Amino acid sequence: MREVVMNTRARDDQDLETSRGWHVSILALVMLLPTASTWLYFVLLAGRPSMQAVYLGSKVLQFGLPVAWVVCVQKRRLRIGRPDFGDLLRGVLFGVVAVGVGLAAYYGYFQGSAYLERAPALIQAKTQGMGLTRPALYVAFALFVSIPHALLEEYYWRWFVFGQWCRVLPVWVAVAISSLAFMAHHVIVVHEFLQTSWWVTAFFSCCIAFGGAVWAVIYRRSGSLYGAWLSHLILDCGIMWIGFDLISWS
């Protein structure tokens, strides 16, 4: 039996080694796709009627590609891991602490400061370009971003990108690469919303990369996305609240 298991593992390793080039190529594509599509619909097509259609199409492509690769190319079955109480607790604690620090920094320092001087008008212009012209529409979009979209991002960045890199790289390298790639498209979003000095954009972007690294570690401990998703959900709610506060709805 041990010989059979060892032979099976050897074949798996050989198959992975043979397909390593394709493996790395698809991961490179998957990591670059969100940044390219964000630049397309958020910058190049901003305010145009086609923006919403391109946004939707890019999300379908982005979140469909990993499943297609795993099922059709790697011939692996998809399974949903069970929630782990420890990971849920760690996720909630990190999310609550991060949101608490963020809100304290916003209300105690950044609100009304020169760093966010242009943010209200920029955020309002972007949200109106997306059709979010009323508070109810903004809240509906905020719930979409915070709940299903946060789950899809965890599936995309932690389950697929981080998980697939772990097959060929040490865990800490996979954490770093996946977290920096997760940060990349957020750099565009942060800069477009703030349009302030690049060090401010860099600071907030690095905070996003740190969050991605924490979520990768949480996911690695149990193989379940629930803890990372719950933490991501809490942070997105805090961010969307700050956006709502910055917009003038009158």
How would you summarize this macromolecular structure in one to three sentences?
The protein is 82% helix and 0% strand.
Distance between the termini: 72 Å
Strand content: under 5%
Q: H/E series, N to C?
A: HHHHHHHHH
Shape by Cα distribution: globular
Helix/strand-derived category reads mainly alpha
Radius of gyration: 20 Å
Count all strands and give the number.
0
Walkthrough of the structure:
There is one protein chain. The chain has 250 residues and is mainly α. It has one domain (2-246). The chain contains nine helices and no strands. The radius of gyration is 20 Å and the shape is globular. Residues 1-15 have low confidence and may be disordered.
Which features does this protein show?
mainly alpha, 9 helices, globular
Can you lay out the helices and strands and say which pair or pack?
Blueprint: H1 2-18, H2 20-44, H3 50-73, H4 85-110, H5 119-129, H6 135-165, H7 171-194, H8 198-222, H9 226-246
Helix pairs in contact: 2-3, 2-6, 2-7, 4-8, 4-9, 6-7, 6-8, 6-9, 7-8, 8-9
